[in-house]
Design a protein that fits this description.
The complex is a heterodimer. Helices cover 38% and strands 23% of the residues of chain A. Chain A has 13 helices and 13 strands. In chain A, strands 2, 3, 4, 5, 8, 9, 10 and 11 form an eight-stranded mixed beta sheet that branches. Chain A has a three-stranded antiparallel beta sheet with strand order 1-6-7. In chain B, 43% of the residues lie in helices and 16% in strands. Chain B is globular. By secondary structure, chain B is α+β, with helices and mostly antiparallel strands. The chains are: A alpha+beta, B alpha+beta. Chain A binds chain B through residues 291, 294-295, 300-306, 308-312, 316, 318-321, 323-337, and chain B through 15-20, 39-48, 50, 79-80, 82-84, 88-94, 112-114, 116-118, 120-121, 123-124, 127-128, 131-136, 138-139, 142.
Chain lengths: 337, 221
């Protein structure tokens, strides 16, 4: 899809410059001097700026007609910022998402901590930038992962669900395909993601300040935020598990959902939450994000089954009609109507 | 649950590579109907355009010839663009399609090898004012071109000789002389071409013979 190519570049360069990796491959001496050579925060910040999308991802945002809001603060959803240091609570729907990135521990086997820092931070910045494009709010950074909200006072729950599914699908594709290929080249174990998503309606979600003074955040208290975290643990590698209300708010996507119990073969996995006293049984579903992504208007699938960005909104500099000729020349049309 | 038909099983492959196409069954026409968008990318994976298409696949699948319609109207409705006013697309010459249907098609393979290149070729022509490869002439001239270029039969006269022979006596032993008049044994001459022609069936061979004869006669007169 190439939308994250610019994010792969610093990772490649950090790996290439890593002194421990060089020693591993070339049996070179491992000195403190070369450790410093392998790391440069300034050049990293230039390559992956905090508040600017890298070119391909910026094209992607233009294609979607969306622009990221970089003026966010952790733990302070802009629509509920007024609740900070107040004694007010509000009820408002929200989509909660937990994105866990696994496998980074293995990186320490081959690279210095500073190289690992660049790798994990680049991945995290790619995740944050993508999340912002889809209108998400990064609520908290959790290790290498993210706790994200989708939804606002000006957005319907249905749209928030759609955006959440789009973000999680695009980001999972990045991890599963682009990062996998890069790390495969390096002969190291794969990094993978697991995502849990759930929707709580107005009646289910309380917004308010948690903590004390400046040791605080504006956050949600909701069964469905808790369930999103729990469902993330139920996802397969590079999988997304969603709650029943997500499915309910996206009726046109029914074909992409299957119960987790259908995958595990265990009926006990059908519900992520049971409350028999209130006859409340809440189902968890695997979300077929790849199939969903392939159906998106902004995605085309090429003849090899590889996902490509449509790029209708931007001029594609490398588009060359000669590259269409080998496919086109296989056709020999006729007319007999 | 009812077992899935061969078409439905084969369509799984279509979903993987052409995910915006979906199928339904028309009991009225006893036909599988595929509808949706076909995105065209080049060999580098760069996206070019999207066609809204329909494909009718008869119940006799895999022994059938799918009918393709283009609804986007990106292609000019003109005979030289190999498309009818209604958007029916002529992706290949009919004897070729008949030969494929006799062997049996796979719907994924048919889209990949016939439909996708047809639309890629139309984009190519829209940009370059010519097709990337060859095209068949229209109507009977295209059929003659098929016999010459695809079945390696040298000229109209030889086509007629072979077709006449196959109508009068379809069985030709491997060591018999080739009906093309070369005096060679058929196994060393037009064996493969003759087998392909035989697969069209007697009715089609007769109509090709009659149409080519008429074409030559009209041209002479």
């Amino acid at each position: 899809m190439h939308i994250f190519d610019d994010y792969l570049k610093p990772i490649r360069e950090a790996i290439a410059a890593d002194p421990k990796s060089k020693r591993f491959h070339e049996n070179l001496s491992f000195s403190g001097e070369s450790i410093n050579k392998g790391f440069d925060f300034k050049s990293f910040n230039q390559q992956v700026p905090e508040k600017r999308l890298l070119p391909n991802l910026a094209d992607f945002a233009r294609e979607l007609g969306l622009s990221p809001n970089f003026e966010q603060r952790l733990g302070l959803h802009p629509d509920f910022a007024h609740l900070k240091h107040s004694e007010t609570l509000e009820d408002h729907y929200i989509v909660s998402m937990f994105v866990d990135i696994k496998g980074s521990t293995n990186l320490f086997k081959k690279y210095t901590p500073r190289t690992v820092w660049i790798i994990t931070n680049t991945i995290q910045r790619a995740a944050i930038h993508t999340c912002l494009i889809f209108g998400g709010y990064v609520h908290r950074l959790q290790g290498d992962g993210l706790f994200v909200y989708f939804g606002s006072k000006n957005m319907s729950a249905e749209l928030a669900v759609k955006r959440a599914l789009q973000f999680s699908s695009v980001f999972t594709y990045f991890v599963k395909e682009d990062l996998k290929n890069l790390f495969y080249e390096q002969g190291i174990e794969n990094i993978l993601t697991r995502i849990g998503v759930d929707l709580g309606y107005d009646r289910d979600v309380v917004w308010g300040m948690a903590g004390i003074g400046e040791i605080s955040e504006v956050t949600t208290c909701s069964l469905h935020t808790s369930l999103a975290s729990k469902m993330q643990g139920k996802a397969v590698s590079n999988g997304i598990v969603v709650g029943e209300y997500i499915k309910k708010e996206s009726p046109l996507l029914n074909e992409f959902y299957s119960t987790v119990s259908a995958r595990t073969g265990s009926e006990s996995d059908r519900y992520i939450f049971r409350n028999p006293e209130e006859s409340f049984y809440y189902t968890q579903y695997d979300f077929d994000w790849l199939k969903f992504l392939k159906r998106q208007d902004f995605i085309a699938t090429d003849l090899n089954g590889v996902l490509q960005l449509k790029n209708k909104a931007v001029v594609i500099p490398n588009r060359n009609i000669a590259n269409l000729a080998p496919i086109a020349a296989a056709s020999k049309p006729y007319y007999n109507f | 649950m009812l077992a899935k038909s061969l078409f439905e099983r084969d369509f799984k492959e279509v979903e993987k590579f052409f995910p915006k196409l979906r199928y339904s069954w028309s009991s009225k026409y006893k036909t599988w109907i595929i509808n949706g968008e076909l995105d065209i990318c080049d060999s580098e994976g760069v996206y070019w355009n999207t066609f809204n298409i329909g494909i009718a696949v008869p119940q006799s699948y895999p022994h059938c010839i799918p009918v393709i319609i283009e609804r986007t109207e990106i292609i000019p409705r003109d005979i030289d663009w190999h498309i009818s006013q209604e958007g029916l697309c002529c992706v290949d010459v009919s004897p070729n399609l008949i030969a494929m249907s006799k062997k049996g098609i796979h719907i994924y393979d048919f889209i990949k090898r016939k439909i996708y290149p047809y639309f890629a070729n139309q984009i190519y022509k829209l940009s370059e004012n010519k097709y990337a490869g060859k095209e068949y002439a229209h109507h009977i001239e295209g059929i003659i071109q098929y016999y010459v270029e695809d079945l390696y039969i040298s000229d109209e006269k030889t086509i007629l000789l072979i077709l006449q022979r196959l109508i009068s006596s379809p069985h030709i032993g491997r060591n018999e002389k080739c009906p093309c008049g070369s005096e060679k044994k058929i196994k060393n001459c037009h064996q493969l071409s003759v087998e392909t022609i035989k697969s069209f069936g007697e009715e089609r061979i007769k109509s090709d013979l009659s149409n080519i004869n008429d074409y030559i006669t009209n041209r002479l007169s």
